[in-house]
Write a structure and sequence with these properties.
heterodimer, B: alpha/beta, Rossmann fold, Alpha-Beta Plaits, 12 helices, 29% strand
Amino acid sequence: MKTIWTIARRELGAYFSSPVAYVFIVIFLLLTGFFTFMVGRFFERGSADLVTFFVWHPWLYLFLVPAVGMRLWSEELRLGTVELLFTMPVTTWQAILGKFLASWLFLLIALLLTFPMVVTVEYLGHPDLGRILSGYSGSLLMAGAFLAITCMTSSLTRNQVISFILSVVFCLFLILCSWPPVTDIVVNWAPAWLIDALAGVGVMTHYEDFQRGVIDSRDLIFFLSMVLFFLFTTSVILRGRRA
Amino acid sequence: MITVEKLTKSFGSKLAVDNISFSVEKGEVLGFLGPNGAGKSTSMRMITGFLAPSAGKVSVCGFDVVEQGLKSRSRLGYLPENAPMYSDMSVFGFLSFCAELRGLFGSAKARAIDRVVQLCFLAPVLFQSVDTLSKGYRHRTCLAQAIIHDPEVLILDEPTDGLDPNQKHEVRTLIREMGREKAIIFSTHILEEVEAACTRAIIIDRGKIVANGTPGELKSRAPLAGTIVVGLIGIGWQAVQPNLAALRFLERSDLISECDSHTTFRLEPNGDLLPEVLTLAQRQKWQIDHLKIEEGRLDDVFRSITLPDTERASIK
């Protein structure tokens, strides 16, 4: 546990000792504000909820989460510090979890800094705070799933740009694969189980449950198993590199 | 402390390390020599547990590096080639991070950092970013990381690479001093370093161990080791050569140089030649300018055993 925390602290320190953290947080807050108020027409809707706020999160995370996570392993591989890290008394899982949790914590900090949105709806009306809380949980879980994917793509290459692009493509697939225009492509020829599988791995249906204020254990399990699966893949890739 | 048994590593069809075995005891400093690409770094990476061996076993302090990796790794310190470090940290932050991963916290950590900062002369750059360090300081910071937990076993991959002569000397002295209570393996291209710091040396070529012995033993394998070089004043080679026929243990003689009445030549013995030469010189009243027995140079040994066979033949 102590080892995981040591690694996580170093990783968080790396974010905040460079401009990355500040640039990311500012851009994230500006974009959420822009989409909620300008594109989502928050005021015209006249409804005290955060629907127009949360609906944009998948699309923001699509680019911002890979940007946060792309350096996790690529940087280690490029600098050669991976050799240092894995010759310490540290297990592969401790290192993976430490790094993942640090980035997730960082995303949580960014997400918590959107609290003025909550204050605004609270001031303007009587929002359903439970629904807002479940909205935030869904958002955090989806960020975690995307981050785990980025961890995996980052362990594949020492080049951060490649890691970023691979991760964006992967996340985009997960956003779109349960969307009717995409499922329509395969619906005429693919077997039924494939269509179901495609719809099943899509993140959007699970995310939308949270936005309706429902915390369903199936959605929770979905996101957490996504995280575990991609972190497991990361560990396989990292072990393979050293075999 | 370190036991390597039939260690083998192949990358695809390429055999990088081919069935090597050796051991290093406490109090030994083992020099790891070999041309570039001979398999030195690969071997060291397997000993530290970073790379998994294709075959064979390595144990550190009695712990198998694959089966009991955490235990073996906590007992060794490792300086990787090119001294990699997290570029966004300060020297202090980096050492503190490494100390914590080694299980040192609080005052134990502070003491450990103090100790290595003194040993590696890092005080002037302690709060400087790792990014802005000169190569010498980078190497010493990474070396400090390797010894921060005072490990029983040290693996150093080219610890003096890129240092200036003074720094090289300091690092070598440090290695020799630490070698009294630890088992150390270090790799290098610099042969004088082996003589200065090692108690034993292994030469590895194309994945195989081609020589294993003390620096003295290795030197005696040099082609010219044991030959006698004699310099005389006031006499020419023409006058000397006929007299040499009287030497019973002489294998062959070669003129090295002859100028102004200074004559230098080399005598290759096949027995106890030196007393004979001295009696001969006394009898002939030769005026000896200098006389020495070649020790052999590690360079020559290194070249003669690591050059490909064809090139070796052409040199002879």
